[in-house]
Amino acid sequence: MSLERFINQAISSWMSTEGPDSDIVLSSRIRLARNLKQYRFPTLFEKDEAEAVIDQVKKRLVHPGEIEDKRLELLLMDELQPLQKRVLMEKHLISPHLAENSTHGACLLSESEEISIMINEEDHIRIQCLYPGFQLLEALQMANTIDNWLEEEIDYAFNEKVGFLTSCPTNVGTGIRASVMMHLPGLVLTQQINRIIPAINQLGLVVRGIYGEGSEALGNIFQVSNQMTLGKSEEDIAEDLKSVVSQLISQERSAREALAKTSNIQLEDRVFRSYGTLLNCRIIESKEAARCLSDVRLGIDMGYIENVSENILNELMILTQPGFLQQYAGGPLRPQERDIRRATLIRERLQMESK
């Protein structure tokens, strides 16, 4: 398979489509956790209960009506190979828990992959909407549409005092996780990020790496999300996050302007050294690739590099993950083989820009 065909088949819309403030915000995500009233949580239930949950959700979401045009396709985790599940996880379409630990789990995916509904993960239902750029409220609107559509025929586990009941106490209440994935090289290079993260934490938000909890901020990519799910409405939680992200966008742009004024030649040199590495390397580890891709994307945004797609960082940060590399290779790869394959894929992808 050619690389161009592989990319066209592999990338999700959030990776290939530009959205508002997409020079800094790569994607916006809303996730709603819900459980069915009549069944035990997935940590305790049996196979027949799991199958009943899948059946109920599937029947509701393929029923003619308001969201019929989304064409949701059901994927059963027990029927997928480990590599297939890993690729879905690397694309942020399913969680590591659903990929690795879920028994009798499933996922409903829209054709654009903007909608992903995980079934029998930590909760019976996790509705996820993933949009390109800074579209947090738009993602919330779609998630609420799906949520309301389900609730018309499904009885959720709900308590009048605390709200939606969830497997993990940290999700009780609204059950919402709102997150924005951001590229913040300016704040990292000016070392402002070290004081900003603690300040964000004090606002009831959390800053994590590209794959959420426990992951590294590779390539200067950070996820900013809410911690509180109780005591505020879903709309208020999303608005609070939107306000903080708007400030981060402003601070990142100011940091880039400061770098251009005080360290322009050094920054330009860094960008083109990284660009040269990616164009010519024959073996590259994931951390070095992430750092160089971040530099190149910054160079594109600041006008140093022309005729290279702005989506290059979005695409290659995902396509150079172990699952994708092995899928493209057609089979398992040892660590060094992955580093060689990663370098080849990056070179070929950059060469496509000059065609």
From TrEMBL:
Appears to be allosterically activated by the binding of pArg-containing polypeptides to the pArg-binding pocket localized in the C-terminal domain of McsB. It holds the Pfam family ATP-gua_Ptrans. A motif (RDXXRA motif of the pArg binding pocket involved in allosteric regulation) lies at residues 338-343. ATP binds at residues 27-31, 92, 126, 177-181, 208-213. Its EC number is 2.7.14.1. Keywords: Allosteric enzyme, ATP-binding, Kinase, Nucleotide-binding, Transferase. The keyword Amino-acid biosynthesis does not apply. Catalyzes the specific phosphorylation of arginine residues in a large number of proteins. Is part of the bacterial stress response system. Protein arginine phosphorylation has a physiologically important role and is involved in the regulation of many critical cellular processes, such as protein homeostasis, motility, competence, and stringent and stress responses, by regulating gene expression and protein activity. This is Protein-arginine kinase. It comes from Bacillus mesophilum. The gene is mcsB.
